[in-house]
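The material for today's practical consists of a large collection of protein records. A record pairs a protein's sequence with a compact description of its fold. Instead of coordinates, the fold is spelled out as a row of discrete tokens. We will come back to this pairing of sequence and fold again and again. Here is such a record, shown just as it appears in the course material.
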Amino acid sequence: MNSVPVLTVKPWRALFDEKFHVVVGNLPPTQEVTLHSLHQSEDTDYWEAFGHYVSDAQGRVTVAKDESFGGTYEGVDPMGLLASMRPIPGSRTGLRFRIKEVHTPMVVHISVYRGHVSQGFREQVALASFVTERWYMAPGVRRVDITEGGVTGTLFLPPGPGPFPGVLDMWGGGGGLVEYRAALLASHGFAAMALMYLFPDAQKAATIGFHYIENAFRLLQDHPLVASDKIALLGTSFGASVALSLAVSETVKPICCVCISGSHVLTLKANQSIAESFKVMKEHVHKSRMDENNCIIWRDTLLPIPEDSDLKVDVGRITCPLLLVVGQDDTNWAAVESADDMTQMMERAGNSHLLTTLSYPGAGHLIEPPYGPHCRASTLPHQMKLSFQLVAVVVLWGGLTKPHAVAQEDSWKKILDFLQEHLCHSVKPHVHSRL
């Protein structure tokens, strides 16, 4: 009687940024098998990843140490079943994986199939299957809607009495209210406010500017469960430009600042609207170009980096620790050149000791928390279309799956360490409990 293969995933229920361990046992020795993951997104699109393995002499496949010989990832990759996910064949074009409902888990079905399979998984009979849950909110994390003072956002509070160090979390040109990073930050002990500051309504968007972001900082600072003297700024893409602009202002005093895939060429001045901040890119939109797949490449709209310090954020005035995260294959933003110029500006100003730069070969623009699917290109967000008055196009963000996944995992750990170092030296950091 043949033994029945056994598939285990531990922990089966975990935070999104935790590793899991996938093992298949009770296989014949040297058996070719395919491990396959499948997730249906909130938009009902299906995402999958798969790796080709050969069982060892004991009839086992251990993903953390065994090599994948093909599939959506190759080599030893413990989290390849998540990080290399892509839309299944026949899906809509231009998809980007985003989580909207952070209070529910990402459910992933993991299955093992006989042989090295690359397509037609629905027509195959799995040898064994397992369902795992990936959460953005640890037990006890509280989600609070923020609508005070005209500010729209969501505050995530760790469990416990506080006060907690705070992080104002700002995403980029895609706009809307993006909560999943803030939820993860709260799971690691930070009171994190996800801020909505780019709105789809053009008339409303024209009224949003520096004072709106400043008010959001004050709201976070004044919350009774937040340590008012321990607030950080965290921004991605255009959110990084906003974070830099606030960090050099006279009115906002963050303890530290994290900028991911950003540039100092776009500025947000005290009496300026968000829409006006995009003026530089709009004036140079003719520099954008298309790749061989008709994906738009925007990075040249910020080049060359101006020499005049009045035309960029004067980072020489930054007085708090600054962490830059850069993907060297960022095809959407001139992040590499901007980081180089910021380094030179800070060296000339004598504050380069405050700067730490993480630069990753093969990583693209969308550097997010780890183990999320790499997105090389996706449809232009609605908010950006309003800003540039363009028809729907697909934007090339850049990056290759494996090095981009490495960048996400490494940078997230170092971002958390950076925040804890500068915000938590006198506030005991909360360590999330196992889900």
Q: What stands out?
A: The first strand starts at residue 6 and ends at 10. Residues 426-434 have pLDDT under 50 and may be disordered. The chain has two domains: 6-135, 142-423.
